[in-house]
Amino acid sequence: MTATNFTVPGMDKTTADKVIAVLDQRMVALIDLGLTLKHVHWNVVGPNFIAVHEMLDPQVTAVQEMVDAVAERIATLGGIPVGTPGAIVGRRGWDDYSLQRALANEHLAALDVVYTGLIEDQRSAVKKLSELDAVSEDLLTGHAGDLELFQWFIRAHLESSGGELPTEGVSTEKGAAGKVS
Predict the structure, then answer these.
(1) Is 170 helix (H, G, I), strand (E, B) or coil?
(2) pLDDT confidence of residue 2
(3) Please, which of 106, 119, 148, 160 could form a disulfide with 164 given CB 3.0 to 4.6 Å?
(4) Ferritin/DPS domain: from which residue to which, for each copy (predicted)?
C-alpha cells in the first residue's frame, strides 16, 4: 500500500507500512460512519425527529474532518489514502447499517451499537500505534475523545433517569432498535 520509497524522518519503511495499515482501517471505518450518520439523518422519523436530525449534522462534519486528517497522515507517511466507494467496501470487515426509515430512538439505539464497535476498534488502534508512532497515536487519541463524546450525545437520548441504557449488552443494530421500540 505504500506509494513512495520514503517516509517521515526518524521512521523506517517497515514501521511506516504498519502505521499506514492501522490508519487505513480507521479511515475506512470513519468514512463508513460518516455515511451511516447521514443515512440516519435522512431516515429518522417520529418524536424527537428534529433534535436527532439536527444533532447528527455536526457529527457528520466532524467525522469528515477526521477522515481528512487520517488520509493526510497516510499520505505524509508515504502511503496512498484510497477512499473510493468500491475500495472502501472491499476493505470493510462489517455489514452495512441495517436500519432504514425508523423512529428516532430506534436509530439512536442502533447508533449506540455502531459507536461501541467503532470506539473499541479505535482504542485498539491507539494501543497498536503506541508502539509504532506517537504522532499517529495522538491523532487517533483525539478522534477517540470526540467519538466518545458523540456516543454520549446518543446515549443521553436513550438513558433512563436511573442511568440504565436499554442497549446494554446488545450487539446488533436491529437488536438494539428492538429494545426501544
Answers:
(1) coil
(2) 60
(3) 160
(4) 21-159
Give the number of other Cβ atoms within 10 Å of residue 117's Cβ.
13
Sole residue written with cell 470506539: 119
42 close to 102: Cβ distance less than 8 angstroms: no
Rounded to an integer, what distance in angstroms lies between the CA atom of residue 119 and that of residue 15?
24
The three cell numbers locating residue 177: 432498535
Whether 113 and 176 have beta carbons less than 8 Å apart is answered as yes
The predicted-structure confidence for 87-132, as pLDDT tens digits, reads as follows 999 999 989 999 999 999 999 999 999 999 999 999 999 999 999 9
Domains of the chain: 13-180 (1.20.1260.10)
Q: Are 36 and 110 in contact (CB under 8 A)?
A: no
Please give, one letter per residue, the 3-state secondary structure of 54-117. Answer: HHHHHHHHHHHHHHHHHHHHHHHCCECCCCCHHHHHHHCCCCCCCCCCEEHHHHHHHHHHHHHH
